[in-house]
Design a protein that fits this description.
single chain, 218 residues, alpha+beta, Glutathione S-transferase Yfyf (Class Pi), Chain A, domain 2, 2 domains, four-stranded mixed β-sheet, 6% strand
Length: 218
C-alpha cells in the first residue's frame, strides 16, 4: 500500500515532496486537502497533525510525519535505492541541510508572507519589504550556484526540489532578472527539463494565478 500524502497542488512544500517521490520512483496516494473550506483545521486533520500544516504524510504502517523537509528526508531514507539525493557524507549533507533551512526560513517564509494576505486577506499589492526580500533571495541563490551544477553541489539533491517549489512560484510573481541572476535562470530551465518537474508544473501555475489574479493592475 502506497504512503498517503495529504496535500494541495498549489502548496510549494507539497510539490517538493511530490517531486522527491517521483524522482525515487515512489508512488504516493495523493489526497487533496480542501484548504479554502478549512479541512486542515477540522478535528480529524488536527489529530493527525497538531500544527495543521500541509503536507502531511501517512505511511502504510500508520507512521505520520509532517513538514516537507522532514518528509523528503524520510522518504529518501526509507524508499530510495541509494543516498544520491541526500548523501550520507556529512559535509555534503550539511550543505543540503543549510539549503533546506534557507528555503524554509527565508524563501518559503517570504512566499507565505506575500501570498497569505493576498489570497486570504484580500490585499491587492506586495509589500515593498517583501519584494526586496525576494530579490535578495534570488541573489543568495545565484551565489549558491556559483561553480555548482545544482544548489548544493555537482549533484541533484532534495534541496533542489525544496527550493525549486518556492522559487518557481515566486518567479511567476516577481520574475528573476536574467541579467542579474543568470545562474538562477539556468538552474530553473534545467530543473524544468527533469521528468519529476511534472509534479510541480500544475501547482506552480495554480499558486501563481491565485496571487497574480488579485494584484491591482498597474
Amino acid at each position: 500500500m502506497a504512503p498517503t500524502l495529504h496535500m494541495l497542488y498549489a502548496s510549494p512544500p507539497a510539490r517538493a515532496v511530490m517531486m522527491t517521490a517521483k524522482a525515487i520512483g515512489l508512488e504516493l496516494n495523493l489526497k487533496e486537502v480542501d484548504f479554502m473550506n478549512e479541512e486542515h483545521l477540522k478535528p480529524e486533520y488536527v489529530k493527525m497533525n497538531p500544527q495543521h500544516t500541509i503536507p502531511t504524510l501517512v505511511d502504510d504502517d500508520g507512521f505520520i510525519i509532517w513538514d516537507s523537509h522532514a518528509i523528503m528526508i524520510y522518504l529518501v531514507s526509507k524508499y530510495a535505492k541509494d543516498d544520491a539525493l541526500y548523501p550520507k557524507d556529512i559535509k555534503k549533507r550539511a550543505v543540503i541541510d543549510q539549503r533546506l533551512h534557507f528555503e524554509s526560513g527565508v524563501v518559503f517564509a517570504l512566499l507565505r508572507r506575500i501570498a497569505r494576505p493576498i489570497v486570504i486577506g484580500g490585499q491587492d499589492f506586495i509589500e515593498e519589504k517583501n519584494q526586496k526580500g525576494v530579490i535578495e533571495s534570488y541573489a543568495f541563490l545565484d551565489q549558491f550556484l556559483d561553480g555548482r551544477k545544482w544548489v548544493a553541489g555537482d549533484f541533484k539533491s532534495i534541496a533542489d526540489y525544496s527550493l525549486l517549489s518556492s522559487i518557481s512560484t515566486l518567479n511567476k510573481v516577481i520574475p528573476v532578472d536574467p541579467e542579474k541572476y543568470p545562474r538562477v535562470i539556468a538552474w530553473l530551465k534545467k530543473c524544468e527539463e527533469l521528468p519529476e518537474y511534472e509534479a510541480n508544473r500544475k501547482g506552480v501555475q495554480e499558486m501563481a494565478d491565485m496571487i497574480n489574479s488579485k494584484l491591482a493592475k498597474k
